[in-house]
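ESCALATION

Customer reports they have been waiting on this structure for their group meeting. Please prioritize. Original submission:
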Amino acid sequence: MFALPVSLLAAKNIVPSNIFRFPVRRLLDSIRGVDTLIWALVWINVVGLGPFAGVLAIAVSDFGAFGKLFSEAIEAADKKQVEGIRASGGNALHEIRFGLMPQVLPVIAGQVLYFIEVEYRSATIIGSSVPRHRPATGEQIRVLEWQKVSFLILMILVAVAAIDWISGKLRFAIIGRRAVA
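Update from on-call: job pushed to the front of the queue and completed.
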């Protein structure tokens, strides 16, 4: 949600001036350059130990990645629709809303759905890396509790497969089925 407006500021076809675009791109690079696990450690110091720190870590990390991916999708959009809006008397907001967004929203939706699957796995890694009162996955591996570890891995695989199936249905609902050439 926050990455989309920032990605507009990072896109060359929206903000042609490098003076304004350069700092936005470097901000996204610096956020994206820090690993999610490091962001988790930062947020644990800010909000304390718990799932909220993990959620914030994943959100900040994804903000940087989404900002870059969305800006690249915006830059790759066809200019003809935007020019058509401009030729019919539309202003800059109309160009973005009616000429650009219909082109990039399916790409953005596909990226968001894919990231949900990826971040589910990241959440399990962050959850198993943070010490708790009961044994976490990493601790279970160290003490050779392979039955529990195998069950956890199986549950992660089932959940990822379910998320992939649901995201496929949502993606086709958004962009429709396209014929393969």
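Sent to customer with the following note: Helices lie at 3-10, 18-32, 36-47, 51-75, 79-87, 92-129, 137-142, 146-175.
Escalation resolved.
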